[in-house]
Amino acid sequence: MSGPAPSPRSADPSAGRLSVVGLGPGGRQWRTPEVSAVLAAATDLVGYETYLAMVDERPAGQLRHPSDNREEGARAAGALDLAAAGHEVAMISSGDPGVFAMASAVMEQLDRPDRPASWDGVEVVVCPGITAAQAAAARVGAPLGHDYATISLSDNLKPWSVIEARLDAAAGADFVLALYNPASRRRPRQLGWALEIIGRHRAASTPVVVARDVGRPAEAIGIVTLATVDLEQVDMRTVLIVGSSTTSLVASTGGRPQVYTPRRYPAVVTG
Ligand code: SAH
Q1: CA 229 to chain centre
Q2: Is the pLDDT of residue 205 over 70?
Q3: What digits encode the pLDDT tens for the residues 261-271?
Q4: In the predicted model, what is the mean pLDDT of residues 197-202?
Q5: Residues 6+ apart with CB under 8 A from 262
Q6: Residue partners of 34: CB distance under 8 A and separation at least 6
Q7: Residue 130 CA: which ligand 1 atom is closest?
Q8: Does ligand 1 lie within 6 Å of residue 195's CB atom?
Q9: 217 CA to centre of ligand 1 in angstroms
Q10: Ligand 1 center to residue 238 CA distance, Å?
Q11: CA of 218: how far to CAs of 39, 125, 156, 212, 243, in Å?
Q12: Is the pLDDT of residue 90 over 80?
């Protein structure tokens, strides 16, 4: 296999394209050239206003359609309508658009039994980005060097009982855990509950990376332990990486503390 997948032009030549793009965590240095090219060529940018504000290019004539963070379905449908009308639409997510972001919301609209026929000709493209956990991991070494699970602590779209069950299973299976949407003003207590569940399976000394605003000017990264996570320091702009039983600290080089998870895993002795 070589090269990108062919992109067949849509059946309706008057229909446009919807590109669902990931900006990466923040700064331009972590944005792919593909995404920059799509942003430059788009006639319309659609997205949550905070993410739109992260796009500093403003080509002449390009329109912006900011929306509230909580109306994903309507935003995706509106973007598809614009593309069906012949526009080159870029829908913006932070990080990767497939990780707790807009790519699924667009697919969900396309999967609607009552979807408008006008969408049939729209070409939908997903352009990947660096997700928050990868960016945070890169800052501190290699905590995601072995198997890991990505879990959102937000119970806006899934029940807390499901989150609890997944945390318990993933921690029990000794995955490193990347925790997204860890806390917000509306949900201040979930992270404490989550760490309590994880603590049933992990030592209090397990390394935890607390990474806020990674790749942005206000970046702040700490390496603490499961017992010393300061819940007050964690908000919606923070991602946490909780180590597995094999994650360990490395003596710092160049003044930077480092943490890694080895690729080798000890054999489980049974019987
Ligand atoms: N699509 C995004 C995730 C969206 S969910 C991605 O792939 O990164 C939003 C959550 O992502 C936030 O609550 C936070 O946990 C995490 N996040 C996104 N950008 C971040 C950044 N620059 N620094 C730290 N965490 C970030």
Answers
A1: 22
A2: yes
A3: 999 988 866 55
A4: 98
A5: 145, 146, 246, 248
A6: 127
A7: 7
A8: no
A9: 15
A10: 7
A11: 24, 32, 27, 8, 24
A12: yes
Residue 105: phi and psi, rounded to 5, are -60, -35
Give the Å distances, CA to CA, from 71 to 23, 77, 212.
Answer: 20, 10, 25
Mean predicted lDDT score pLDDT of the chain: 92
pLDDT given for residue 38 in this prediction? 97
Residues 175 and 261 sit within 8 Å (Cβ to Cβ): no
Q: Give the span between the Cα atoms of 99 and 196, in whole angstroms.
A: 25
Neighbouring CB atoms inside 10 A of 14's CB total: 9
User: Of 68, 49, 95, which Cα lies nearest the Cα of 216?
Assistant: 95
- The reported pTM is 0.92
C-alpha span between 32 and 224 (Å, rounded): 31
Whether 214 lines ligand 1, by a CB cut-off of 6 Å, is yes
| Nearest C-alpha neighbor of 190 from the set 244, 219, 151, 217 | 151
What is the Å distance from ligand 1's center to 114 Cα? 32
**Whether pLDDT at 108 is above 90:** yes
If we measure between CA atoms, which residue out of 192, 193, 179 comes closest to residue 150?
179
> Which residue type does 207 have?
P
Name the closest-CA residue to atom 6, ligand 1: 95
Distances (CA, A) of 77 to 2, 16, 90, 115: 33, 14, 13, 9
Q: How far is 45 from 64, CA to CA, in rounded Å?
A: 5
CB of 24 sitting under 6 A from ligand 1: no
Q: What is the pLDDT of residues 231-258, one digit of tens each?
A: 999 999 999 999 999 999 998 888 888 9
Q: Inform me whether the pLDDT recorded for 10 exceeds 50.
A: no
